[in-house]
Amino acid sequence: MSSFDFRPLRRPCLQVALALAGALLIGVADAPAQTPPAALDPTRLMQGFPPPPEYRVHIGNWQQWPQKIWSFQHTRELFPTRRLAPSGPVWVLPEARQSLDALAVGTSEAPQTWLQMLAATHTDAALVLHRGRIVEERYFNGMAPATPHLMFSATKSMVGLMAAALIAEDRLDPQARVATLLPELAASAWADATVRQVLDMTDGVRFTEVYTDPRSDIFAYIGAMGWAPELKKVGAPEGIQSMLGTLMGLHDEPRGTAFRYRSPATDVAAWIAARAAGQSLSDWVQQRLWGPLGMEHEGNLMLDPIGTEVSFAGMSASLRDMGRIGQMLLQKGRVQDRQLIPAGVAEELAQGGDVRAFAAAGIAHRQGWSYRSQWWVHPQPPRFFAAMGAFGQRIVVLPEAEIVVVLLGSHPQPVSALIDPSQVRAFAALDALLNPKAKP
């Protein structure tokens, strides 16, 4: 994605949609610079009976800053959702807390502490687990332990877990063609792509994201999924799945050779996985994670206008519960005496995907990374795989360091290049602090 400019677009609906479109693209390096309004006090959002107009959060401003500080913690008050309910004994995370506030995570040219990094990346909550024990747990901006926070594209990785588990259980063929599994898409560009290509976003389907052109696919997508109803045109497809069948074009490269990060691929993957499993993503997450994993708090999954789950970006959950998912994967899918996810799934994520295909995307700040089953993989020290979402949502698993980091944020801009470098340095600093004997 190249840089784009807000100035030619004067209509309010397009300006709101640009923010929404940017949120879909956490893997993309460039986006327009935005200057957040300084006049609003975030602590006054939605306060009062009624709140003053300038402090009200609604569907027309929920991704503006600072409104997003409130909206990311209250998606159930803005959109229809499907509940994820904890059941059974809670998986108690033991504690081994130590202060990380002064931990140096910057560079000699730009010194920075852990606490300064959290502030600079607009972090709402942070959790660090080492060998399953809580080292750090912090809440900001009104967050509390039970607060469900929107995960944006980290939701994609839940789709990836579901599909990867189905493959490992021989319930889904990774080489099957989309048209075979989803006849509804047989006339679209998805038809001849394999399940593996869709999961790794190397399917080659063209999805235009020209932000200065209101005819671009991204605007129809936003309108169809309900995040910006003013973009929904009369006669246009309603709902995510209806929109998927309208994509007809292919990129020039052969399928399977180039990574291109696009949210529609996740929605196709979720559709495939749901049909193979005979249950929705939320039912699978409830059955395989929220129930047996010992979750502590309610979560939820956002729905589009016709009741389809917003699989690419709609999950909300608490900080510790996201930590439990990361810790389960660190333990190769096993919690106590139960194998919740096949061990091979976690091993595959740690190994990563096709580095050459990933390089074709040209993401400068993620050189050498890869993408596998909807998870981002960082192969250099400190090695990790991660669920990553716009505005600073992260579930990071460092297998060799035995560390899990969860970060929830409300950054003013959906630009991963503003967040990744400092976070990766912080992960290395955590490894050095918590595993000193492992260093030469």
Could you give a short account of the major beta sheet?
7 strands, antiparallel
Instruction: Give the CATH level 1 class of the largest domain.
Output: Alpha Beta
Number of strands: 13
Percent range for β-strand residues: 5-15%
Query: What's the number of helices?
Result: 14
Q: Would you kindly provide a written description of the structure presented here, covering whatever features stand out?
A:
- The protein is an alpha+beta fold.
- The chain has two domains: 12-70, no CATH class; 84-168 and 265-435, DD-peptidase/beta-lactamase superfamily (Beta-lactamase, 3-Layer(aba) Sandwich).
- 29% of the residues lie in helices and 13% in strands.
- It has a seven-stranded antiparallel beta sheet, sandwiched between helices. Strands 1-5-6-4 form a four-stranded antiparallel beta sheet. Strands 7-8 form a two-stranded antiparallel ribbon.
- The model is unreliable at 1-13 and 25-35 (pLDDT under 50).
Quick overview of this protein structure:
The protein has 440 residues and is of the alpha+beta class.
Topology (elements, then pairings):
Elements: H1 12-23, H2 67-71, E1 81-84, H3 114-120, E2 123-130, E3 133-139, E4 149-150, H4 154-168, H5 178-181, H6 195-199, H7 217-225, H8 240-244, H9 263-277, H10 281-290, E5 299-302, E6 315-317, H11 319-330, E7 334-335, E8 338-339, H12 343-351, H13 355-359, E9 370-372, E10 375-378, E11 384-389, E12 393-398, E13 403-409, H14 420-434
